[in-house]
Amino acid sequence: HFIQAGMYREALRVLSEIQDRTAEWYYLSSIANYYTGNRITALNYAKTAVQMEPNNLRYQEIGRASCRERV
Prior knowledge:
It is built from 4 helices and no strands. By secondary structure, the chain is mainly alpha-helical.
């Protein structure tokens, strides 16, 4: 798992090849984008993950963390 290994650019490469963009895709892409310096994209993807699955606590937490980072 590239994200767990801290290989965020490689994670983004693999994610970019996935056509079916589920809430999990947006969640993982948010993390990878955040750690490659794409903070705005990370925030937007975190919000999308939460919108797609509003009851997922893991997605809610990344969304809150992204919002705190912006302030």
